[in-house]
Write a structure and sequence with these properties.
This protein is of the alpha/beta class and 365 residues long. It has 2 domains: 114 residues, Aspartate Aminotransferase, domain 1 (Alpha-Beta Complex), CATH 3.90.1150.10; 196 residues, Aspartate Aminotransferase, domain 2 (3-Layer(aba) Sandwich), CATH 3.40.640.10. Helices cover 38% and strands 19% of the residues. It has 14 helices and 14 strands. The strands form 3 sheets. It has a 7-stranded mixed sheet, sandwiched between helices. A 4-stranded mixed sheet has the order 1-2-3-12. A 3-stranded antiparallel sheet has the order 11-14-13. Helix 3 runs parallel beside helix 11 and helix 4 runs parallel beside helix 5. It catalyses: 6-carboxyhexanoyl-[ACP] + L-alanine + H(+) = (8S)-8-amino-7-oxononanoate + holo-[ACP] + CO2.
């Protein structure tokens, strides 16, 4: 059982926050703060203009707030097929909607597991992928983060022992904000016959480009997981694969089979957003990344080490009008506590002045 007292002693006790969002602001305990802690990277989820435009077209449409059944029983709206068709036309792969990225990773990785499969996982992949491997009692090994030499060494050591090796990685890592070397992984796939790639695009799809890193590189990737709850500002996730694997997932992915599907109105909202041009938002997001100059992506970690220091800086930013969460173990390794700054396209560079100044004052940490 979780040790509450120890968590409090380690400055690692967590509580739900009483808050609500309003455009680029988060109202926390009655105070409006610039929201630098969300995954709403393009500012779509909290856009009043987009919301109102969508609601106008909802009248007289069969877009309900509940789906009524798992999709294995029936599909409640043709918006589901419309969304999957959008992905299939863009990625030239079969698409299947899940209720969340966590559900998709948990079920799809479990479904891919058998006694002839070895998974090779980057040390910093998302908890949902690790949970899938553990729950499935899968054969897996982890390699040091973004260490190409270690990854290839594991392939050489194990290639003859299993029927297939599946590499698990994120395209942009959720806590460090750095990119995987997918070009190198593709070269491994070309050089070793039994290597497959499973890439989680949760934090890259639709943010810096419409199709994310994998989509921009082409589709020689076996499994691509995209989420709709981050840059798209909606709910749900989509796994992209071959038609054969889509059938495998439909028949064995437990979170798909045993969950009532997401509401049709959420799927319609995703289709509404995907149909629009968001290039101006992406241009502004790139400007913000350059201005803050902490990282090459919209996820900007500021590692301080100790939990107490991360909390201290988070509270100091709160006083300056910014909400930036302190990220602590087990979300990040012990001794790697940090601020996780999430940039969003509805900000201006001037909004970041107080944040930039405080970070400059604490860079020695």
């Amino acid at each position: 059982m979780f040790d509450i007292q120890k968590a409090k002693q380690d400055d690692n006790f967590r509580e739900l926050k009483r808050s609500k969002i309003s455009s680029k602001f988060l109202n926390l305990n009655g105070k409006n703060l610039l929201n630098l802690g969300s995954n709403d990277y393009l500012g779509i989820a909290s856009s009043v203009a987009l919301r109102d435009e969508f609601l106008k077209i909802c009248l007289n449409r069969d877009w309900y707030f509940g789906s009524g059944a798992s999709r294995l029983v029936y599909t409640s709206s043709d918006e589901f097929e419309r969304l999957e068709s959008w992905f299939e036309s863009k990625f030239k792969k079969s698409a299947l909607i899940f209720n969340s990225g966590y559900c998709a990773n948990l079920s799809c990785i479990s479904a891919l597991n058998d006694s002839d499969t070895l998974f090779l996982a980057d040390k910093l992949i998302h908890a949902s992928m690790i949970d899938a491997l553990k729950l499935a009692n899968a054969n897996f090994k982890r390699y040091a983060h973004n260490d190409n030499e270690a990854l290839e060494s594991l392939i050489k050591q194990n290639q003859g022992n299993v029927k297939r090796i599946i590499i698990l990685s994120e395209a942009i890592f959720s806590m460090d904000g750095d990119r995987a070397d997918i070009e190198f992984m593709l070269s491994l796939k070309r050089r070793y016959d039994n290597v497959m790639l499973y890439i989680d695009e949760a934090h890259s799809f639709f943010a810096l480009s419409e199709l994310g890193i994998c989509g921009d590189m082409g589709c020689d990737i076996d499994f691509i997981l995209v989420t709709l709850s981050k840059a798209v500002g909606s709910s749900g996730a989509v796994i992209l694969s071959s038609g054969e694997f889509k059938d495998i997932f439909i028949n064995s992915a437990r979170s798909l089979i045993y969950s009532t599907s997401i509401p049709p109105i959420n799927v319609a909202w995703s289709n509404f957003i995907l149909a629009k041009d968001h290039s101006k938002r992406r241009e502004n997001l790139a400007n913000l990344i350059n201005f803050l100059n902490l990282n090459s992506t919209h996820i900007c970690p500021f590692v301080v080490g100790e939990n107490a220091k991360a909390l201290e800086l988070s509270n100091a930013l709160n006083e300056l009008g910014c909400f930036v969460p302190a990220i602590r173990p087990p979300t990040v390794p012990k001794g790697k506590a940090r601020l996780r700054i999430s940039l969003r396209a509805d900000l201006e560079c001037g909004d970041l002045a107080n944040l930039k100044r405080l970070l400059d004052e604490n860079r020695s940490h």
